[in-house]
Write a structure and sequence with these properties.
The protein is mainly alpha-helical and 105 residues long. The protein contains 4 helices and no strands. Helix 1 packs across helix 2 (38-47), helix 1 (9-23) crosses helix 3 (52-69) and helix 2 (38-47) packs parallel to helix 4. The chain starts with 8 loop residues before the first helix and ends in a 15-residue tail after the last helix.
Length: 105
């Protein structure tokens, strides 16, 4: 199935509100974007290339990181922090260099 890309911040907000309404904690206000703000939504749309599934996957990871780090809210700053950490975690170490047959430096 092909989904239309998210192009407007308001569309991204609606997607995240629906996600949070379904999977957020019981004590949160329905139809509220908290803990995200508009700058976070804008950056998540950009970084996910507007793909709804990628945006939701990113939102989940950011919420998990926010819980671990006890973030009070999630703005573009926290999204950048999450993306940088994720980038560092996924870097692959270079292959060891062989200088002669059978040895590894």
């Amino acid at each position: 199935m092909i989904l239309n890309p998210i192009e407007e911040v308001s569309e991204g907000e609606k997607l995240l509100v629906a996600y949070m309404n379904r999977f957020g904690t019981a004590n949160r206000r329905r139809d509220d974007l908290v803990p995200f703000d508009r700058s976070a939504v804008r950056l998540m749309i950009e970084q996910s290339n507007g793909r709804p599934g990628r945006m939701l996957e990113m939102a989940h990871g950011i919420i998990e990181e926010g819980a671990r780090e006890q973030w009070k809210s999630i703005s573009a700053t926290e999204v950048i922090t999450y993306l940088q950490q994720r980038s560092e975690e996924t870097r692959v170490a270079p292959f060891p260099r062989r200088t002669r047959l059978g040895s590894v430096d």
